[in-house]
Amino acid sequence: MLEMEEVEDFEMKNDENETILLEKMTENMPENMTENMIENMTENMTENMTENMTETMTEDKTESTFKRKIVNENVISDAMKILAYKTLVNEHIANKALIRVLQSYDIDFNSLGLIESMLDEIKQFVYILEISGFEKISQLCKSIINQDCSTFTEVNAWNVCAISCNVNSSMIQVNMNNCILNVHSKFSQFIYCLWLCTHIKHIELSRIQKLSHSLDIYGNEAFLFLLNKPIISCKQNIEKYKHSFEYVFEVFRLTIEEASKIS
Q1: Which residues contact 52 (CB under 8 A, 6 or more apart)?
Q2: Left (φ > 0), alpha (ψ -120 to 50) or beta: where does 69 sit?
Q3: Which of 19, 50, 66, 158 is disulfide-compatible with 263, CB 3.0–4.6 A?
């Protein structure tokens, strides 16, 4: 499993606008959301892809369910600390005992549950896309979520994009059931962000274990050492997770919202 440092250098890759979508898509967008990437993610919507939207998505449901999500950095920070404690000290500690321990370090016990809830929401979005006629996007998302590592090969070769069905020379490859999906590189930020936020628990467990082994300290001693540095919840890592969650949710929200208007 890769550490955070091994995926920290991925860049936002924004192509020139190939198609101008509704300007409403980027109104009041968070500052770290790039307009081109959101437009690129939804520019291939067609009436054929949205025929089934009316049965599964009503206007009221869209407004009440798919709101812009702002992720609290403190939630991510505390969740990382809980994962570190379970990894280094006691993986099977009972909740009541864990709450007492976390209170002594001013760590919110509910934070990890909130992260898990967001991961469940992502799965819900993927399911809604699948039953609403967006099978290609749904399959891509499932493949990214199920891929163990973030090794997505970027190639410069003419091929057909699995999402847009357009021929392009800049591709990123995603493994799906031992088959290769070629996806236009303009979707690369979404691919990397989706992988990062859905693998947060595995990344953190691996990172903490490697830090503990490299420092040759273990158990509660290792937890306190890493907590006090602070290494467990460094700001740079928290910001990457926050951006990834918010970006993925915004792409899903706008994709479904705009598709529902086309039908």
Answers
A1: 131, 132, 133
A2: beta
A3: 50
Burial degree of 209 (CB within 10 A; 0-12, 13-18, 19+):
middle
CA proximity to 83, closest of 193, 212, 244, 195: 212
- What is the rounded distance in angstroms from the CA atom of residue 83 to the CA atom of residue 75? 12
Please identify which residue in the block is written with the tokens 């915004």.
250
Beta bridge pairs of residue 209: none
Q: Choose from 39-43, 100-104, 224-228 the range with maximum mean pLDDT.
A: 100-104
Q: Using CA atoms, how far apart are residues 197 and 80, in angstroms rounded to an integer?
A: 13
Q: Are 167 and 157 in contact (CB under 8 A)?
A: no
Residue with tokens 């009440």: 64
pLDDT band at 263 (very low <50, low <70, confident <90, very high): low
57, amino acid identity: M
Pairing of strands 167-176, 153-160: antiparallel
Q: What is the pTM of this model?
A: 0.74
Handedness of CA 228, 232, 236, 242 (dihedral sign): negative
Rounded to whole angstroms, the Cα distance separating 256 from 25 reads: 11
Give the integer Cα–Cα distance in Å for 202 and 80: 11
